[in-house]
Amino acid sequence: MIRVFISIVFSVLFVGLSGNSFAQKRDYLLYTDDNIERLKAQIKDDDIVEKAWQDQLEKADKVLQSSRQNAADCQVLALAYRMTGKDVYAKKIRDILLSSIDTETWESQGLLNRSPSWTGGLKTSHTSFFLSLGFDAAYGYLSKEDKMKIAEGIVRLGIKPQMANWLSPETSFHTFDTMGHNWWSACVYMAGLSAIAVRNEIPEAQTWISEIAGTAAEWIGYSGSVLQNKIPTFDQDGGFYESINYAAYGVSQYLLFRYAMENAMSSMEQEDFPILEKFVDFFIQTTYYVKDDAPMSVNFGDTDIHRNGNSCVVLLYNLGYQDERYAWYLDKVNVGSDMEGLELNSPIGLILHPDLPDLDPGFRPDLATSHLYEEMDWATMRSSWDDNASLLAVKSGFSWNHAHADAGSFILFHQGKNLIIDSGNSSYGNPLYTEYYCQSEAHNVILFDGEGQDRKDPYFGTVNHGDLHHLIEGEKYKYLLADASGPYAQLLRRNYRSFLWVGDVILVIDDLLAHQPGKFEWLLHYNGTSKRNGQYLSIKEGEAEVLVQALYPETFPDGGLPHDFPEQMRLEERMGYKDHEPEKQLPYWSISHHEESIRTKFINAILLKEGSKELPILEKFEGKDFLGIRITQNGEVTEVYFNLLADGRMKHRNSVISMNGWETDAYLTALTFEAGVDRTKPENVKQFFIGHGSYLRREGQVMAHSLSKFYGEISHEGTAYIDGQAGAKISLGKSSFGKFLLNGQKASSMEKDENGLFTFRLPIK
User: Fold this and answer.
1) Vertex 475: Cα angle to 474 and 476 (nearest 5)
2) pLDDT in tens, 167-181
3) Res 341: pLDDT
4) Within-domain flag for 586
5) Above 50 in pLDDT, residue 258?
């Protein structure tokens, strides 16, 4: 009798313990034992983390007190339960789970009404993710019957609809070509994460997990489609063309699945993808770092100026992809806007908050300050990695879906502000999203007779994409060529935009040729206030300011009224719409010339003001078949020559020219001297830049020579930064270098010939 009584007592105790988190060992998806232990240690040592935890606990308590909950509440309840062990949080998770599976679908009616019906879209993905986290975290609290009922509900409403739409040979209708961007990863990999959550209850889950994991190589490696005008999803250097927003979203969804697999199913080997580390550098390169304020990002396409890659980098850091520059980046972006909820002040961001090393205050990433994403045609160029530096970002690539009709556009950050801007976007249901935000006029591009790219490009995609080429990051010059001719082919034969950055001056050089005469316009969108004062157009926000100076074909009037100087450049105010606030209008500028023409050259300078520092002085000069600009700044003089014969007007004849005694065939030439020296002497040239040229000579003295044209900066100090034909031989006129560095590396093949020329070859890529 006593034995029976004891047996009954132990049975009751055992059943009671089944509602306790200590009853069963669980390999959790995100809220793992190790992560809980780490967070508790951080709370003791870090006031910021301690406050973030108290904020989350307060939110969890508010959920308990609220009369209404939703699936997303499982995130904060899961954190509170795993951190405190208090069953009140697990009970609320249970209530949400049981309520959520008592329905016919998790999908929105709009997608269900499509033909075929989209039963496994983003609403299903998000709901499945939230509930799976709750199920996983409260697993030890739930009864066996609860677990089976909830697991079957997650399969019925979450996993199976997504697999049916996206993966099943019998029923799938999505492909990488149509939905292989961010939706693919959100729907497929959240189905995978949910399958991991229910692996103990559902025997088929193991097969689903393996199948879903096996899609990653194809998703990452999607190569594009000619017939449907699609480019590869990912650039070879880790970029994602649809915007920072969708890069962070799409990649993070896969990484959440990968991380859950590593935690809960560590015996399953996962394929390694070298591009994962490149994702981090993409976010580092496209973020603008602001002193004592939230960072901003390169906001081409459908994104937000404060979106960043925090979610992806946090996950990669937890997955073991760790480097000091990743830690530096996370320290910069770990607060702020992150729609994936992985910033520090979010439940998942808090539980995944890594222990970061203490870096020296002077630490900077060991990355070049400029980068070209050659396959998606984005580029960034910055003055340094310091906070509040200057950052120029350029896009001239593909337009479709979240990527706008903005070939050749650029934005500029300076002294902590985004001064020259992208117009951004609005909610997708607002008519202005399609009519304005996606169109060329919302960007800093060229218009011809009021038109830009085909207005249907964002829907159908550009058949002839734009391109970026020949990024040069030298010690004196930065250069980039944007080719927007393809997207403008119905209007223009040539639409080339060169950026030449010298000191505190950025020259924007547009080489334009139309099919017939018309009016060319140069658009400029800005933040803050803007007004013209003589030949300068000021753009100012707070203490940050840049000046725009029109140089060719004419300058702004230096005084008087515009109608008194019809031959000068015209400045017209237009009205657009504010980023994410379409109900508010925002002015922008159109710069144009009074004459209609079939061919023109716009040269505009952007002067980067630095407090009370003396402004650069720009002077125009020109001669037969060339345009010139002289820049005086910081004790130096730089002369820039634009060879008009090199603009494609001649066939089978090289663009040979003598410009103030400098003989070349180069499209662009720049020479920098110390102020006050004789600028006719080749030996007085400190550095020079050749843009698409094969030689530079003066009075028989060779400064550079090649059999094919190249782009690059060359210094008499023994350095060169060159982009040209692989294996090309280049000769320089000075041969007494102590050492010679080509693109930051020792040149592999060097020689001195009988003429005293120093010769090297460009590497074979």
Assistant:
1) 95
2) 999 999 999 988 878
3) 63
4) yes
5) yes
Whether 714 contacts 687, CB under 8 Å: yes
Please state the φ and ψ torsions of residue 624, each to the nearest 5 degrees: -65, 115
CA distance linking residue 49 with residue 28, whole number of Å: 22
pLDDT tens digit sequence for 725-740: 999 999 998 656 667 8
Same domain for 678 and 652:
yes
For 484, the 3-state DSSP assignment is coil
Please report, as a single letter, which amino acid is at residue 617.
I
Of 322, 351, 380, which residue sits at a domain end?
Answer: 351
CATH number at residue 11: 1.50.10.100
* CB half-sphere exposure, 760, CA atoms < 13 A: 26
Measured CA to CA, the distance from residue 708 to residue 720 in angstroms comes to 17
Q: What is the pLDDT of residues 656-702, one digit of tens each?
A: 999 999 999 999 999 999 999 999 999 999 999 999 999 999 999 99
The residue out of 320, 351, 382 marking a domain boundary is 351
The shares of helix, strand and coil residues in the chain, as percent rounded to the nearest 5, are: 30, 30, 40
Same domain, 596 and 744: no
Is 359 a domain residue? no
Domain annotation covers residue 367: no
> Containing domain of residue 727, as a range?
616-765
Based on the domain organization, do 621 and 595 belong to the same domain? no
**Does residue 652 sit in the same domain as residue 560?**
no
pLDDT band of 765, cuts 50, 70, 90: confident
Residue 171, phi then psi, degrees to nearest 5? -135, -10
How do 391-395 and 544-552 pair as beta strands? unpaired
HEC per residue, 238-274: CCECCCHHHHHHHHHHHHHHHHHHHHHCCCCCCCCCC
DSSP class of residue 234 equals B
CA angle 66, 71, 75 (to 5 degrees): 85
> What count of other Cβ atoms lies within 10 Å of the Cβ of residue 667?
25
Average pLDDT over residues 118-142: 98
CA–CA distance, 281 with 611 (Å, rounded to integer)? 31
Q: Which one, of 372, 406, 365, lies nearest residue 389 by Cα?
A: 365
Cβ count within 10 A of residue 495: 28
What length is written for the chain? Answer: 765
Residues 575 and 621 in one domain: no
Same domain, 671 and 535: no
Say yes or no to pLDDT of 4 above 60: no
Position 68 pLDDT exceeds 90 = yes
Residue that wins the pLDDT comparison between 757 and 36: 36
| Cβ atoms of 354 and 315 closer than 8 Å | no
Residue listed under structure tokens 């060992």:
25
Number of structural domains the chain divides into? 3
| pLDDT tens sequence across 556-609 | 988 767 777 888 999 999 999 999 999 999 999 999 998 899 999 999 999 999
327 and 395 share one domain = no
Secondary structure letter of residue 94 according to DSSP: H
Q: In this structure, what DSSP letter does residue 762 have? A: P
Mean pLDDT, the chain, integer: 93
Cβ-contact 131, 97 below 8 angstroms: yes
Measured distance CA(460)–CA(458) in Å, rounded: 6
d(C-alpha 634, C-alpha 682), whole Å? 21
Confidence of residue 450 (pLDDT cuts 50, 70, 90): very high
Q: For residues 504 and 490, what is the distance between their CA atoms, to the nearest angstrom?
A: 36
Q: Distance between CA atoms of 366 and 325, rounded to whole angstroms? A: 7
CA–chain centroid gap for 60, Å, is 34
For residue 358, is it within any domain? no
Same domain, 118 and 197: yes
746 pLDDT band (50/70/90 cuts)? Answer: confident
Burial class of 741 by CB neighbour count within 10 A (0 to 12, 13 to 18, 19+): middle
Banded model confidence at residue 355, pLDDT cuts 50, 70, 90:
very high
pLDDT of residue 720: 94
